[in-house]
Amino acid sequence: MDEAFATELDAIPWLSNIGQPVTAVMPWPVIPVTSWGEAFACFDDDWEALKGAARDRLTTFMRDRRNRGIRDFDWNEMVRAIKARVLTRLDETVWRPFGERHGLTPVFADLVASDVRLAALEYETRRIAGRPEFFRLLLQVYRAGHFPCGWCAGTWPDGTLVIY
């Protein structure tokens, strides 16, 4: 895993501005929500489908490169490195304790970890022309101390991101 990106992840003020006004520039228009109840009400099938489609674009991109004989890096090794360098520690010291303090299920930490893992994989493909990008942009929400929780008013990339 790229050490500069890992250091950047370490410096994120994870979830520190939950419920606060959005002051950072976001990659899409945003609608803020004001409670965990609202946040998880927005976490619907459409949001899951959007994130699933973004994940599928990334995996298809990497699979197609591998099928053409281009081996930029070992996908599985990259996931192991990301988990070892940042995910396990952030999960144990930030995301799970945060979830427990706020009465959230363990799935909450899994959602954040998945977004970060996929953002890191997108980062690793940053020098490859035509690579998809969604989770690196979504990471800007976390950098601003918020939680991305939904999408409304249009089909991605048009529409509005819902954040808490």
Outline the structure in words.
- By secondary structure, this protein is mainly alpha-helical.
- The chain has helices at 3-10, 36-42, 45-67, 75-101, 107-124, 135-143; strands at 30-32, 148-152, 160-163.
- The protein has a three-stranded mixed beta sheet with strand order 1-3-2.
- A hairpin with a 7-residue loop joins strand 2 (148-152) and strand 3.
- Helix 4 (75-101) packs antiparallel against helix 5 (107-124) and helix 5 (107-124) crosses helix 6.
- It is globular.
The DSSP helix count reads: 6
Largest sheet: 3 strands, mixed
* Total number of strands: 3
Helical/strand content category: mainly alpha
Strand order of the largest sheet: 1-3-2
Rounded to the nearest angstrom, the radius of gyration is 16 Å
Quaternary structure classification: single chain
Shape: globular
- Helicity, in percent? 55-70%
Strand content: 5-15%
- Compute the average pLDDT: 90
